Each structure stands twice: as C-alpha cells, then as structure tokens.
C-alpha cells in the first residue's frame, strides 16, 4: 500500500480539445545531450532541455563529476568539458532515473577512478543485472545488492565485446556503446529488434566512430566533439494528448515540435492501425532527429488491434495510455511481448490492470501484457493509485476525461518526474 500523496480529481470533458500546444523536450534526448556533451571535448549549448526531475538528476550527477554546466535560462544549458571526468567523493545520486543509472554506469566503468551510484527507493528496486552482466564481460568491476542499486563501480580498462542481447533495450545498448568509447577494440551490440536509436544519432552527430547494420551497432574507441544540440519535443509526452484527442468527442488540435524518430513513433503507427485520425505535418530535422507537427482529430471509429513483437520497443512507454485508448475502441486490443513493463517505476501491467478495473475498463492481465475489451462507457467514481509512477498517473488522468463520474488520482505529483507541464498544456486545449 502506497503512502497517501496529493489527490488529483478529474472530471469528464463535455467538449472537445481544441487549439495547439508545443510539447516539452524529449526526456531521452535531454539525458543523452548532457551525458555526451559532458564527455565530449569543447563547449556547447543545449537548447530546450527537459524540465523533468529525471533529467535534472543526470545534470546534477555530471556536475558532481566536475563538468562545468551552467543554465543560461530555464531550458538552455552551457556545457564546457575537457572530455575527462573527476572522481566524486559523495555517492552519485540518480534520484528516480533508471536511464541515468544504466547509461552512466557504462561511462564510469572505464574511468580511472571508483564511483558509487545510489537512487531513491523505487530506483533501488529496478533490475541492474541487464547492464552489470555485459559490462562485466567487458572487464568492468561492479558490485551491487543482488543486481540492484547501490552500485559500486571500480574504474578499470575495458575490452570491446560482441554482445547478443535477448532484450531490445535502448538503455542496455547505450550503456555498452558508452563503455565502448573507452574500451580497447570494437564493441558491438546486437538486439532482436531495433530499440530507440537516439544514442546512435547523437554519436554520429558528435563524431563517434560508429557503424549501424540493421539491429547491430558497432562503436570503436572515440573522442566526442562538443556541438550545440537542440532537443525536439517528446513523443512519449505527446502520446497522452494524442490518446485524449482520439477519445474525447469533438477534439481537433495540433501538437507542435514532436520528435518522430521511427524507433519512437510506434504510437503513431498503432493509432493509425486502430483507425484514429493523426496527420503528420511540417516534417524537418533538428540535431539529427526528425521532428514534425501532429494534428489529432476525433472520429469515434477506433478499433482494437494486436500489439506485439517489434512494435513493443517503439512504444513501451506509451502502453499504459494505449490501454486507456483501447477501452474506447471496438473489439479486443491484445498486447504481447511487453513483460519489461513489469520492471518500470512500478509493475505497470499489474498496477494498470488493478486501477483501470476500478473505473469499469474490461482489462485482463497476462504474463507479458494485457487484453482490453473496449467500447464501454467508463463508470469512474473511484480513487486510483499512481504507485509513484508518472506514466500511470497521466494515463489515469486521460481516462478520467471520459469517465461518467469524477475520479481521484493519488500521487499525481509524480508526473513531475517527466512532465511537470502536463496539466498546464491540457488546460490550454480545454
């Protein structure tokens, strides 16, 4: 049972969402922009940096490692680095950010100093063996508590390896590629499906010696060179608004500045497969990343579909709100091969099913996903637990917009982890 946090009430919307919004910066790219610029040589400006707490955990960690990072305004950073990091005597606090801990472990494993990585209670429960095991094969010396944080990393020379991953994971891939920058020889990562490729794109942009061949990525020892980075809008954040627009009658609005990288845009493909009306407009490239505006229109013609296999790594973070979307679609929506949802800030499969059932969603838990039987008016009239999980909290908010009776969400403030602007932007469309 979670400790009671702030309750957020949500009422049914009687009118459509209208207007336009500019989506905040991509969390995944913001993390990487700071990390890679901190180990690059030179000066750079990072524009449109995420205001989410997780990204600030990354920023503060690299300050601890001796990197000169200054805010020019609340979303613009100036970073000056020699390309070398300094030992931090206090433990490196990763907060709630799994991305920070997993990626930075790859950087620290090859340094000439030792480090201790800590996190909050939630992060300390998340699995780290998925990075410890391949890094150990490279020669890393990492101690953990049964595969969980805190991590004690003794910096030492690393040897490049070829690693066949059973899991399509951008975090594991990025961890090994970062370690490979300082390893002897080539480091190759092979995954069953292509996971998000922000690391590969930024590596190319910053001058790393990297080759990509299908699901295989190879990096040679490289020194990154600092360059200015503009961060595109976060499609994982946009997904909540896309879902809202497709289930709230009369909605018609535009989301501006959304990253539409094909390894992240699974949500667009799925809603199109379900019969939702989304239009991609004004496509362009920013710092190696494709970007566009997205128009969302309500049609009331959603149909269930099967989501599995190579779909999953392209929309893993969006699956909770897709469950809400599926509740308003005709027929069954079946999600398979998504067992890694159980290893997020919460067991997202179990928690999602537990809470959505309370408001009348016909949803069934499976071993590696869930089944939603849709096109049913949601009753609402219940208090939902966020489990301190930002994506669950925002997904429940979207569900509340079509519930007959008001709902309350316990721990809604956890949305600040990734999207503190969420309510403000929603209000702009109401």
How would you describe this protein?
- The protein is of the alpha/beta class and 430 residues long.
- The protein has two domains: 7-25 and 232-429, UDP-n-acetylglucosamine1-carboxyvinyl-transferase, Chain (Alpha-beta prism); 27-230, UDP-n-acetylglucosamine1-carboxyvinyl-transferase, Chain (Alpha-beta prism).
- The chain has twelve helices and 25 strands.
- The protein has a four-stranded mixed β-sheet. A four-stranded mixed β-sheet has the order 4-5-3-14, covered by helices on one side.
- The longest helix has 13 residues, at 27-39.
- The model has no long low-confidence stretch (mean pLDDT 96).
Strand content: 25-35%
> Can you say what the CATH homologous superfamily of the largest domain is?
Enolpyruvate transferase domain
The strand count comes to 25
Coarse morphology: globular
Give the spatial strand order of the biggest sheet.
Answer: 2-15-17-16
CATH class of the largest domain: Alpha Beta
Structural class given helices, strands, pairing? alpha/beta
Major sheet characteristics: 4 strands, mixed
**Total discrete domains:** 2
**What would you report as the Rg, rounded to the nearest angstrom?**
21 Å
The low-confidence runs, each spanning 5 or more residues with pLDDT under 50, are: none
State the assembly state of the protein chains.
Answer: single chain
Helix content: 25-40%
Instruction: Please count the helical segments.
Output: 12
- Terminal Cα separation, in Å? 34 Å
The CATH architecture category of the largest domain equals Alpha-beta prism
């Amino acid at each position: 049972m979670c400790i009671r946090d702030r309750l957020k009430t949500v009422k049914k919307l009687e009118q459509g969402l209208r207007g336009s919004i500019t989506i905040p910066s991509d969390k995944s790219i913001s993390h990487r922009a700071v990390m890679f610029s901190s180990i690059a040589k030179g000066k750079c400006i990072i524009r449109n940096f995420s205001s989410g707490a997780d990204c600030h955990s990354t920023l503060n960690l690299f300050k601890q490692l001796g990197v000169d990072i200054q805010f020019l305004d609340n979303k613009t950073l100036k970073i000056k680095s020699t390309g070398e990091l300094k030992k931090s005597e206090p433990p490196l606090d990763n907060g709630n950010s799994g991305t920070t801990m997993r990626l930075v472990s790859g950087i620290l494993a090859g340094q000439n100093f030792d480090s201790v990585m800590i996190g909050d209670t939630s992060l300390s429960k998340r699995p780290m063996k998925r990075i410890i095991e391949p890094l150990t094969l490279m020669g890393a010396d990492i101690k953990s508590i049964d595969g969980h944080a805190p991590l004690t990393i003794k910096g030492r020379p690393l040897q490049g390896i070829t690693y066949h991953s059973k899991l399509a994971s951008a975090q594991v891939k990025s961890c090994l590629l970062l370690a490979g920058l300082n390893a002897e020889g080539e480091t190759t990562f092979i995954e069953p499906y292509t996971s998000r490729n922000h690391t590969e794109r930024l590596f190319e942009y910053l001058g790393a010696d990297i080759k990509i061949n299908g699901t295989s990525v190879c990096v040679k020892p490289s020194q990154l060179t600092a360059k200015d980075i503009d961060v595109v809008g976060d499609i994982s954040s946009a997904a909540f608004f896309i879902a809202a627009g497709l289930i709230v009658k009369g909605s018609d609005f535009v989301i501006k500045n959304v990253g539409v990288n094909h390894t992240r845009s699974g949500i667009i493909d799925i809603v199109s497969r379900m019969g939702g009306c989304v239009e991609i407009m004004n496509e362009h490239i920013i710092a190696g990343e494709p970007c566009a505006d997205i128009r969302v229109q309500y049609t009331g013609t959603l149909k269930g579909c099967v989501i599995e296999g190579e779909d999953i790594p392209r929309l893993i973070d969006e699956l909770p709100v897709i469950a809400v979307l599926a509740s308003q679609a005709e027929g069954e929506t079946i999600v398979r091969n998504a067992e890694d949802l159980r290893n997020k800030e919460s067991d997202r499969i179990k928690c999602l099913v537990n809470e959505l059932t309370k408001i009348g969603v016909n949803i069934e838990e499976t071993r590696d996903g869930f089944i939603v039987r849709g096109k049913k008016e949601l009753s609402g009239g219940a208090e939902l637990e966020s489990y301190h999980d930002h994506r669950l909290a925002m997904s429940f908010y979207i569900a509340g917009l079509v519930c007959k009776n008001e709902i309350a969400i316990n721990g809604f403030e956890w949305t600040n982890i990734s999207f503190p602007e969420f309510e403000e932007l929603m209000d702009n469309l109401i």
